[in-house]
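Sequence design from tokenized structure. All designs in this work follow the same two-part layout: the structure record, then the generated sequence. An example of the structure record is given first.
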């Protein structure tokens, strides 16, 4: 007897879960850091363009495949490609997605675990002590916390436990329930922090930095980086949105949902920038444009503000919440593969896959100690191939996701018939005036743009 397949309770459940998948460390950590690195304004505009012209069309494509087949990526490609050119070979895209989910989760959960430690440190007052001197905190983070194998393993295992627990209880009872509690909380904490940052003296400068484009500072590398990030932050290229789309009903509009999810994801990324840049500008700390800014610079600034200890705790709690709804989606891709393709029960699938990934992630956690750890932490992992941690990150972000996204775009744009895609997109939406635009973007713009990322990686430029 197979269990009945999961379903969201309704439209809101899906939107919150999918937005939860999209919003994560990519928004709160990576985006502010690369925005600083790429000089703000113009980069932000290009990023928004990438989300609209490449991200949204591919998200629509993924959700459409999921809803059409009611299957996870491997099965979805198998079913839709059956009578099309390429046939069964297309299921390889699904396999690549499962591999990517496995790989990303095994290091993402390590970083996510740090938020538990920092929330705890903030609550018990230690963080305020450490953060009173940037050098002390930097030293603590790099040479004590990261170098401590047992701590790295502990928090990673804890975070995987939370993730596995949520996925264990299923689509509606676990994933959706967690998202319905955490997403509003996350938004609430962010709004408090944004309001707070408007009262700081660095607010105006932060807004100028973000919204006054200066195109003379824009490089080809920045454009490619914005594109690559659009993928990661929207959870595209490995079938996560496809999987979530397989649990929705036939009665609501896919294009509208994709636009809403992408809008919310971008909004939160910008809010994170406003908060961080305002408080950084307020202090006269020299900004190290490093990937570790979130765990070294931010606390030292927050702690100087009134209520700093509490602000720090809220801040790391927020990041932990965001990360949890993302790790859940990563585990769901891997688990739903076992459920749909291997015929396992959900409980068996989540416990097995969760444990295997936890063990694998322990290797990543342990690889952080020692030399090069700091430089290998870079969520998108461009130049970093040091250590197991950096390698995972590099493989997933530079190869699996872009290649997966490229193939998804080709498949929906060129392999499936227009009649099929149009019919699916119009179901629950009505006549789709924008179908022609979507079709053009998915056939030409997305493959070319994503192809450019792949070529630049092959040529070894890696977004530089
Ligand atoms: N989008 C998440 C973030 O910004 C990470 C993530 C979750 C993801 N699921 C994914 C990235 C699937 C790629 C594919 O942090």
């Amino acid at each position: 007897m197979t269990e009945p397949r999961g379903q969201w309770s309704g439209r809101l459940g899906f939107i919150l879960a999918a937005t939860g998948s999209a919003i994560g460390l990519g928004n709160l950590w990576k985006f502010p850091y690369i925005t600083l690195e790429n000089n703000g304004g113009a980069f932000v505009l290009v990023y928004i363009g990438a989300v609209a012209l490449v991200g949204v069309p591919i998200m629509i494509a993924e959700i459409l495949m999921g809803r059409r087949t009611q299957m996870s990526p491997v099965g979805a490609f198998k079913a839709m490609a059956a009578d099309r050119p390429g046939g069964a070979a297309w299921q390889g895209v699904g396999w690549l997605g499962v591999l990517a989910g496995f790989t990303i989760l095994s290091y993402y959960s390590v970083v996510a675990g740090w938020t538990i430690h920092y929330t705890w440190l903030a609550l018990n007052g230690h963080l305020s002590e450490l953060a009173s001197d940037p050098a002390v905190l930097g030293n603590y983070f790099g040479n004590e916390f990261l170098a401590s194998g047992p701590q790295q393993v502990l928090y990673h295992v804890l975070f995987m436990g939370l993730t596995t627990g949520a996925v264990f209880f299923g689509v509606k009872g676990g994933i959706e329930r967690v998202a319905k509690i955490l997403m509003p909380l996350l938004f609430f904490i962010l709004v408090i922090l944004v309001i707070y940052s408007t009262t700081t003296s660095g607010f105006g400068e932060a807004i100028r930095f973000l919204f006054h484009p200066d195109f003379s500072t824009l490089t080809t590398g920045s454009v490619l980086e914005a594109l690559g990030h659009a993928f990661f932050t929207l959870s595209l290229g490995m079938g996560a949105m496809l999987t979530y789309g397989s649990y929705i009903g036939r009665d609501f509009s896919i294009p509208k949902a994709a636009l809403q999810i992408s809008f919310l994801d971008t909004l939160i990324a910008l809010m994170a920038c406003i908060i961080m840049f305002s408080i950084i500008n307020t202090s006269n700390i020299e900004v190290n444009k490093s990937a570790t800014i979130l765990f070294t610079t931010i606390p030292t600034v927050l702690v100087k503000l009134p209520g700093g200890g509490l602000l720090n705790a809220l801040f790391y709690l927020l990041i932990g919440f965001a990360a949890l709804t993302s790790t859940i989606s990563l585990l769901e891709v891997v688990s739903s593969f076992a459920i749909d393709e291997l015929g396992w029960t959900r409980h068996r699938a989540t416990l097995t896959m969760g444990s295997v990934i936890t063990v694998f992630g322990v290797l990543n956690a342990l690889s952080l100690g020692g030399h090069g750890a700091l430089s290998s932490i870079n969520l998108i992992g461009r130049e970093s191939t040091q250590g197991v941690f950096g390698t995972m990150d590099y493989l997933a972000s530079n190869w699996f996701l872009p290649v997966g996204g490229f193939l998804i775009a080709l498949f929906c744009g060129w392999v499936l018939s227009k009649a099929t895609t149009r019919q699916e997109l119009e179901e629950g939406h009505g006549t789709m005036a924008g179908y022609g635009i979507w079709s053009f973007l998915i056939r030409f713009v997305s493959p070319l743009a994503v192809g450019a990322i792949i070529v630049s990686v092959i040529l070894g430029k890696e977004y530089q």
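The mean pLDDT is 90. We note this feature because it recurs in several other targets discussed in the main text.
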